[in-house]
Amino acid sequence: MHKVASLRWDRDSCTNVRLCAKVGGEKSWQLSQLPGHYPVIGGGKNKPGGDIDIAVMQSISRHGEVAPLVKNYGQIIVDECHHIGAASFDAILKEANAKYVLGLTATPVRRDGLHPIIFMHCGPIRHTAARQKESPHNLEVVPRTRFIHGNLPSDARIQDVFREIALDQERTSAIADEARIAFGQGRKVLVLTERTDHLDAIASELVLLKLSPFVLHGRLSKKKRTTLISELNTLPPEAPRILLATGKLVGEGFDHPPLDTLVLAMPVSWKGTLQQYAGRLHREQSGKTDVRIIDFVDTGYPALLRMWDKRQRGYKAMGYRIVAENDAEPDSGIPVKLTLW
Predict the structure, then answer these.
(1) Structural domain boundaries of the chain?
(2) In the 3-class helix/strand/coil scheme, how is the chain assigned residue by residue?
(3) Are 55 and 19 in contact (CB under 8 A)?
(4) pLDDT tens-place string over residues 257-276
(5) What does the pLDDT read at residue 92?
(6) HSE of 72, CA atoms in CB hemisphere, 13 A
(7) Which of 231, 245, 263, 290 falls between 20 and 30 A from 211, CA-CA?
(8) Residues of the signal sequence (predicted)?
(9) Are the C-beta atoms of 157 and 273 separated by less than 8 Å?
């Protein structure tokens, strides 16, 4: 039997692992089906069992030094292998004697163009999982166009533009209103932004609308974050909900299958980020047949329009249908006020 090391990229992901591997080259199994507990290296734990170990990558490669134990494994399985490119990971594979290396990812591309390194370390793509029959099949994007009356020059730095967007009170109210409408339709809503101040502003607007959103951001302690996710998961699957979060916290490794609506509150352009965000809606859930992305299309700055062009290509590549804005009329029992643009 090959000794197997699974490299994970963050501590929390070590607590919920489902890996597939080969025993003796003949028999397949899943870790979750095997008896016992599996040693974790990382998060204050360091008691490898020597057969099947789950490790946080940063715990076995620090300051240029690689833990000698990596030489003991015949197979290395890398979760979220699109992160490969870091010098620390390169050092691990240089020290390892593994005959087999398996990489797992939903986005085998890197924004910095270093994705060829993934294939250098893990080999070519051997299998691409097909969309499950039970997965949502009606995928639509509803654009909400809004002109920004900004005071910045047309060539302003993009971070300055983002800051202006986040401070736009009318836009923030419109985002909260879209979430309210979707909630009133019984949908399970995820609102994503990259700025915690923006997140707080949207949350405040929702509270004014007599709604109680779940708010997930990096300032929460691990205990509070775990409690919040537990409360979210205990809701009946059919119950509507609104989750506000930063993209960094739910971009990967986050799993809440009931989600069927994404409100993109801050523009993105890279297809990898878009795939990760949309992927939060693609989890199988009984009764979920359609998913919807509400995309705030900001105009007024050329950079924002270029980002929208890239998102449109990304949506189409994922099989989404972009609905004409005039055809996307909200259908809710709650009075609707969309008079902001």
Answers:
(1) 4-122, 138-327
(2) CCCEEEEECCCHHHHCCCCEEEECCCEEEEHHHCCCCCCEEECCEECCCCCEEEEEHHHHEECCEECHHHHHCCEEEEECHHHECEHHHHHHHHHCCCCEEEEECCCCCCCCCCCHHHHHHHCCCCCCCCCCCCCCCEEEEEEEEEECCCCCCCCCCHHHHHHHHHCCHHHHHHHHHHHHHHHHCCCEEEEEECCHHHHHHHHHHHHHCCCCCEEECCCCCHHHHHHHHHHHHCCCCCCCEEEEEEHHHHCCCCCCCCCCEEEECCCCCCHHHHHHHHHCCCCCCCCCCEEEEEEEEEECCHHHHHHHHHHHHHHHHCCCEECCHHHCCCCCCCCCCCCCC
(3) no
(4) 999 999 999 999 888 889 88
(5) 83
(6) 14
(7) 290
(8) none
(9) no
pLDDT of residue 16: 35
Given this model, what pLDDT does residue 124 score? Answer: 86
- What does the alpha-carbon distance between residue 131 and residue 126 come to, in Å, rounded to a whole number? 16
CATH class of domain segment(s) 138-327: alpha beta
Q: How confident is the model at residue 134 (pLDDT cuts 50, 70, 90)?
A: low
Which two structure tokens, joined as six digits, stand for 255?
Answer: 């799993």
Residues 6+ apart with CB under 8 A from 53: 4, 5, 6, 38, 39, 40, 41, 73
State pLDDT tens for residues 147-203: 877 778 878 899 999 999 999 999 999 999 999 999 999 999 999 998 999 999 999
Asked if 4-122 and 138-327 have one fold, the answer is yes
pLDDT at residue 337, rounded to an integer: 33
Q: Does domain 4-122 have CATH number 3.40.50.300?
A: yes
